[in-house]
Amino acid sequence: MAENIRMFGHPYQRVYSEALLAATECGFQISANDAEEGMIKATTKLSFQSWGEEIDINVSSMDFSVGIGAKVTISSTMVTISSRVPNQLLDWANKNKKNIKCFFLTLERRLGG
Questions:
Q1: What percent of the chain has pLDDT over 90?
Q2: Which of 5, 17, 18, 66 is deepest in the core (most CB within 10 A)?
């Protein structure tokens, strides 16, 4: 299993929408998603490199206020992704890391970063 976390300086709804599109663009098949919960579940197809992976993506708002007196609200969004091969003990072809790399590169490009 592989997992990674990244922070983005964009509003939650934009990051969630782009995360859903990035997952599809990486070839993940979306099996469930819930914008209110910030959850995206996906799978990959069977290939010569693996039996297919299960992918969980969680998006959460990290808004907080700073300052004394006149406060400033800072919007940030955290994205967590995990990828695992359910029927194999080892990830021989590093597919989990490749899935995560594809997802974050695509998401960053879609967000303009």
A1: 68
A2: 18
What is the DSSP code (8-state) at residue 97? H
Contacts by residues 108-111 (CB-CB < 8 Å, ≥ 24 positions apart):
110/18, 110/21, 110/22, 110/25, 111/8, 111/10, 111/14, 111/15, 111/18
Q: Which two tokens stand for residue 83?
A: 């990828």
- Residue showing tokens 């021989």: 92
Whether pTM > 0.70 for this model: the answer is yes
Q: Which CATH architecture has domain 2-110?
A: 2-Layer Sandwich (3.30)
Tally of residues, the chain: 113
